[in-house]
């Protein structure tokens, strides 16, 4: 069985040496960004991108076949503490809902998204959506400890969809 590659190979604006968004735990205030694509079996994450990265550049390089292409500013990463993962996820984590308080057009610079580290399956990595950074960080910490997966909080900086 071939190995699934989870990181986008054709984005050249990565930091050197390359880092995944999950490598360094804690608060990030350096302006680093990363891309997450939904509806892709492979290549749905970018490595960490330099602060001056242009989402339009990515849009032009990525082949068709995704539902959404999101650009996030890395804000926080939680690594799990030692222990066993929970055998059953919280039902809210299986199908998180977008905040009803704001429309999609208002997500940029307002929506915090919690995602778990990439795994070949399932291919939808979103844990939760929040309008408050502290709620998103608390959810990321809790999910990391319960599910024993690294999680990241990203602030939405770009939202392209139906490519």
Rg over CA atoms, rounded to whole Å, is: 15 Å
Question: What's the helix count?
Answer: 3
Major sheet: size, sense and barrel closure?
Answer: 6 strands, antiparallel
The rough form would be described as globular
Count structural domains.
1
Class from secondary-structure proportions: alpha+beta
Percentage beta strand? 15-25%
User: How many β-strand runs?
Assistant: 6
Report the span from N to C terminus.
29 Å
Q: How do the SSEs run, as a string of H and E?
A: EEHEHEEHE
Approximate helicity band:
10-25%
Oligomeric organization of the protein chains: single chain
Overall mean pLDDT stands at 85
Low-confidence segments, ≥5 residues, pLDDT <50? Answer: none
Give structural notes.
- The chain has 163 residues and is α+β, with helices and mostly antiparallel strands.
- It has one domain.
- The protein is 16% helix and 24% strand.
- The protein contains 3 helices and 6 strands.
- The protein has helices spanning 55-61, 91-94, 133-147; strands spanning 26-27, 33-37, 68-78, 112-116, 126-130, 151-161.
- Strands 1, 2, 3, 4, 5 and 6 form a 6-stranded antiparallel β-sheet that branches.
- The two termini are 29 Å apart.
- 32% of the residues are buried.
- The model has no long low-confidence stretch (mean pLDDT 85).
Helix-strand layout with pairing:
Elements: E1 26-27, E2 33-37, H1 55-61, E3 68-78, H2 91-94, E4 112-116, E5 126-130, H3 133-147, E6 151-161
Antiparallel strand pairs: 1-3, 2-3, 3-6, 4-5, 4-6
């Amino acid at each position: 069985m071939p190995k699934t590659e989870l990181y986008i190979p054709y984005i050249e604006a990565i930091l050197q040496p390359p880092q995944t968004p999950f490598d360094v735990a804690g608060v990030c205030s350096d302006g680093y960004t990363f891309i997450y694509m939904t509806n892709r079996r492979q290549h749905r994450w970018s490595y960490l991108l330099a602060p001056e990265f242009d989402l339009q550049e990515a849009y032009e390089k990525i082949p068709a076949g995704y539902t959404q292409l999101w650009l996030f500013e890395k804000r926080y990463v939680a690594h799990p503490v030692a222990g066993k993962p929970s055998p059953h996820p919280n039902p809210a984590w299986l199908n998180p809902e977008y905040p009803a308080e704001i429309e999609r057009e208002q997500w940029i610079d307002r929506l915090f998204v919690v995602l778990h580290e990439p795994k070949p399956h399932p291919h939808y990595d979103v844990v939760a959506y929040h309008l408050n950074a502290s709620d998103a960080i608390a959810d990321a910490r809790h999910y990391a400890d319960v599910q024993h997966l690294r999680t990241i909080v990203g602030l939405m900086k770009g939202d392209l969809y139906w490519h």
